[in-house]
Amino acid sequence: MLYELFGTDRPVIGVIHLLPLPGSPRYGGDLEPVLLRAEQEATALASGGAHGIIIENFFDAPFVKNRVDTSTACALALAVQRTAVICDLPIGVNVLRNDGLTALAVAATAGAQFIRVNVLSGAMVTDQGLIEGEAHELHMYRRLLAAQSSVRILADVMVKHASPLGQDSDIGRAAADTVKRGLADGIIVSGSSTGAPPNWDDLNNVREALPDTPILIGSGTTSENCSALLGIANGVIVASSLKRQGVLENPIDVERVRHLVKAVQNCPSQPD
Predict the structure, then answer these.
(1) In Å, how far are 154, 218, 230, 267 from 118, measured between CA atoms?
(2) What SS3 class is residue 118?
(3) Which residues does 209 contact at the CB level (< 8 Å), separation at least 6?
(4) Using CA atoms, how far apart are residues 186 and 50, in angstroms rounded to an integer?
(5) What number of other Cβ atoms are within 10 A of residue 185's Cβ?
(6) In this structure, how many other beta carbons lie within 10 angstroms of the beta carbon of residue 200?
(7) Which residues have a Cβ under 8 Å from the Cβ of 30 and sit 6 or more positions away?
(8) What is the pLDDT of residues 2-46, one digit of tens each?
(9) I need a labelling partner for 73 at 20 to 30 A (CA). Which of 93, 96, 156, 268 fits?
(10) pLDDT tens digits, residue range 130-147?
(11) Model-level pTM?
(12) What is the mean pLDDT of residues 184-210?
């Protein structure tokens, strides 16, 4: 699936953190600077050798937990379209905090190839309250949009900035349920917060539970730790370590992209 989507079995997927969008508390009233920065960051990712892009409304915090405002959805669609014009990398959409239906609608109508869903199945306690997965609704909507083959679903398991509801925190079992019952096309494993790498035991448990499923690292990848992470996982989704001076609010630095892509290319191949 990864090679079909990204042209490589070991993708580096850069994240464009959109500045505040319409419908969010910090929106400044002018969408054009938001779109221009998205174009600049897409150019940096493409020039640096990244294999894919995820566009997300990162700076819209505090987030709604499910459906975003219609104006936000429209702005996301424009961001995808503007990015696609200047960049031929596959594009994904993540609508925070957990609006998979809007992400799917934007992807299917604006020409993105995949979405990221923070909670596809199960339930997580977050700073937005209790978030429950909507796997059935999402798959039915993908069918309605005739996007079963054109839009892939990548799903987090035990997503960052959240805790599982109840006592069951077996990440391997949760990952297996997300794929076998939630029908995710790939799994994302992150650390506890933005920029934090995943726990090694968690990552190993997910791989043991899903030996043949694509696993992507969702946070905390750097040039220094990518070799160890890719000894278990298949690819990386990166934002924080690609920013200028490593500052989360800054734009993406093309030299940091190049450095990480080169480090990933130099990682030893996984054994068969």
Answers:
(1) 9, 10, 21, 28
(2) coil
(3) 172, 173, 175, 176
(4) 19
(5) 17
(6) 11
(7) none
(8) 999 999 999 999 999 999 999 999 999 999 999 999 999 999 999
(9) 156
(10) 999 999 999 999 999 999
(11) 0.95
(12) 94
